[in-house]
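Researcher: Structure prediction, please.
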Amino acid sequence: MRKKVGLYFGTFNPIHIGHCVIAQHMLEFTDLEEIWFVVTPHNPHKKKSTLLDDYQRLHMVQLAVDQEYRMKVSNMEFGLPQPSYTALTLAHAAEKYPDIDFALIMGADNLETFHKWQNYEWMLENYSLYVYPRIATDGGNLKDHPKVNITEAPIMQMASTDIRNAIKNGKNVSFMLPEKVWKYIDDCGFYK
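Model: Predicted structure follows.
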């Protein structure tokens, strides 16, 4: 039987407890057997100049999930063309791991705009989407699609942008980040 793995894409700049809570919920309350955090070098909707180095972000995700054997960290997009497009990554992952049944994890805000993503029809035909709730959206027109699984994950109103800005302004955000991630950020002086 093929293992079912949820791919949780993000720049994770930095990874925070909201990301971790969502991933843990997906493991405990859906049929996903593993979660792979796919660190994106360059999201087409974000400025590359605002991102910490790819390998530093990858390291922070490793620090965040190193105690959970069902959570993995992936740099599979590091060798692909940038900016990173999910459809290309999925095709690459399916070729590299033919015995794994991949699914996408995304917020309802992303589902609402999913029809604007490159090759979204192909992704909907070939992959299940596991969607967690976000404030002010129900996921739009695709929420009733047979490949879309709306989960009742906790609503995490937390953003990496807000965390970076708080650090820049000298605020203590230690409870918003996994402990090892906070220590790494603080020790390295990131986002100041």
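Model: Residues 17-29 form the longest helix (13 residues).
Researcher: Thanks, that helps.
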